[in-house]
Every structure is written in structure tokens, then in C-alpha cells.
Write a structure and sequence with these properties.
This protein is an all-alpha fold.
Length: about 180
């Protein structure tokens, strides 16, 4: 039996709960990570992914494999996250308090944590579409074409979003952000 995502979706369209559970186990962890990075809140991320998976179940009979299932699901999750970001006011990172490092004796790990925090804060301050483009491209390793499809835009628009996002990150972080130059 074919266990590709597309074959599983065909089974889900016929009401196969086992196929749905397999798709869920296969994709929810990655979608939760993506949603957390976009929303910055685990509870909101879980809600968005749960809503996305509900849409998978309810829209399965109408689903057409015009794109890979993962691309379709990612687009749903990103759109739900963007909708949530538009509705909810942003809470400043400082309001969350200090992050406790479980290994405070390791200097290198503390330095990495500080750098990651600065990058996360700078990323969180980006306009929402720039943030989504950065997260999908650098966080999830997607191509510009995949990001364009998920954000419902063109590849050149994604490239523009990435250029602007990298400029904003460089400005917020100062020099030393060459890791954002992916060519």
C-alpha cells in the first residue's frame, strides 16, 4: 500500500481515520515548530496547528494534489498564523522575562543562547510577511519557490521580502549577521 502523503490524503477523503492519524503523526511536529517560530507562543501555535489539521480532515474530500501535501499544509498553517498575528497585539519579548539557561557554566552555550535570543527578538520585530519568509527559508530550509507558493506570492516578491528582512536584521543586530546570506 502506498504511504505517500498524497495517497494518505486520498484515503482520508474516504474517511480513513488511520490514514489521518498517520498524516498527523508525520506532520504535526514540524508544523508546531513552524507555528511557534512565527507566533512566538506555544499555546497559539498549538491552536493554529490543531485548526489546520481540522481543515485537513474537513477539506480532504475536495483536496486536489496540485501541490505536495506538505506544501499545502504548510500554507494553511502559515496563513492561520498570519491571521492570528494580525488579530492579536504583539507582546514585547521583555514581558516574557529572562530565559533560564539549564547549563549556566558552559560559556559557549551561554553565548549561543544570547545570540539566539537577539536573533529571535530581531526576527520577532520584523513585519509579519518578512518574518514568515525568513522563518520558512532559513528555519525550515524551503526554497524561494516553495515560500512563494505558501505565501501566495511570486518568487521575486519572496526575494524582495528576504532582502528587506535581512537588511532589517542587519540593522537591528549590527554587523556579524553573515549567516543570513544564503546563496
Amino acid at each position: 500500500m502506498d504511504d505517500s502523503d498524497e495517497a494518505l490524503m486520498a484515503r482520508v477523503a474516504r474517511g480513513d481515520q488511520a490514514a489521518y492519524r498517520l498524516l498527523t503523526r508525520r506532520h504535526v511536529p514540524a508544523m508546531l515548530g513552524l507555528a511557534r517560530r512565527i507566533l512566538g507562543n506555544a499555546a497559539d501555535a498549538e491552536d493554529a496547528v490543531q485548526e489546520a489539521m481540522l481543515r485537513v480532515w474537513t477539506h480532504a474530500p475536495r483536496w486536489q494534489p496540485l501541490a505536495l501535501f506538505r506544501t499545502w499544509l504548510t500554507r494553511i498553517v502559515v496563513n492561520l498564523c498570519l491571521d492570528r498575528k494580525r488579530r492579536a497585539p504583539w507582546v514585547e519579548l521583555e514581558a516574557a522575562g529572562d530565559i533560564v539557561d539549564p547549563t549556566p557554566d558552559a560559556a559557549e552555550q551561554a553565548e549561543r543562547s544570547e545570540r539566539d535570543l537577539l536573533v529571535a527578538k530581531a526576527t520577532a520585530e520584523l513585519p509579519v510577511r518578512q518574518r514568515a519568509a525568513i522563518v520558512l527559508t532559513y528555519g525550515d530550509g524551503m526554497s524561494n519557490a516553495q515560500v512563494a507558493e505558501i505565501l501566495d506570492t511570486t518568487v521575486s516578491a519572496v526575494e524582495t521580502l528576504l532582502v528587506r528582512a535581512k537588511q532589517n536584521l542587519r540593522q537591528a543586530l549590527g554587523s556579524g549577521t553573515d549567516k543570513f546570506d544564503k546563496d
